[in-house]
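Quick note —
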Amino acid sequence: MKWLLAALVFFAVVTFLVVGLGKRQTAVRAVGSTSIQPFAEMLAETFNRDHPDNQVDVQGGGSAAGLQAAKNAIADIGMCSRALKPDEKFDSVVIAHDGLAIIVHRSNPLRGLTRDQIRNLFAGRIANWSEFRTPDGPLPNLKIHLITREEGSGTREAFTKLIMGKDHIAAMALTQESNGAVKELVRNDPAAIGYMSLGLVGSELKALQVDGIDPTVAEVKAGHYPLVRPFLFVWSAKPGPKAQLYIDFVCSAAGQRLLESEGLVGER
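Predicted structure written out below.
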């Protein structure tokens, strides 16, 4: 039943994208990761302004939807926020690298966690914040609220690979379908913990140290921060000249500067 429900939801997402993109009749269509989406939209806004006859339209839906859209030629470009698996036969380019931030409410007194502690939290083996201590004493007696991403999310798959290993995320975790939804829940819940793109955290949340390393662009760039994943553009057929023009812009020095100004680490 779980797989049937997931399949129905995925079919609905792809159908929505097909219909929506078809109506727009844009020259270049980029579909996929909601982590990449705001950055791709920002780049497309600049690109569209400079190329009025070659407009780019960006849609979310998740990394799995982006890969499926690229495979079926529904989109010119699929957006994927994790490394490709060996059986995923796509051409691709890494447009940037992103830190994966572990986020809590601003009032949470913790400074950081180890990867083992994060794994135990999301596996459900640690259930109350009072099990953690700071120099000022134990944290408040609050049941921990786990916030995770949906199946098929590149962010969830990256988190599973980098943190969970063979452990499963606890069934009690509340599933959300975008970085924005995760951010909103954690922002309003002192007992919550989640994970999201470092480039989208902003000042409303606290991003925790991981293994004693600050979650900053500088530490990601230096290779010190341990939770890093690639942002990919993928395609199954050679991009047309209009799509290639947008890809070239994203990978150019100007495009990379824009990405770095938004908190990502450029590839070039």
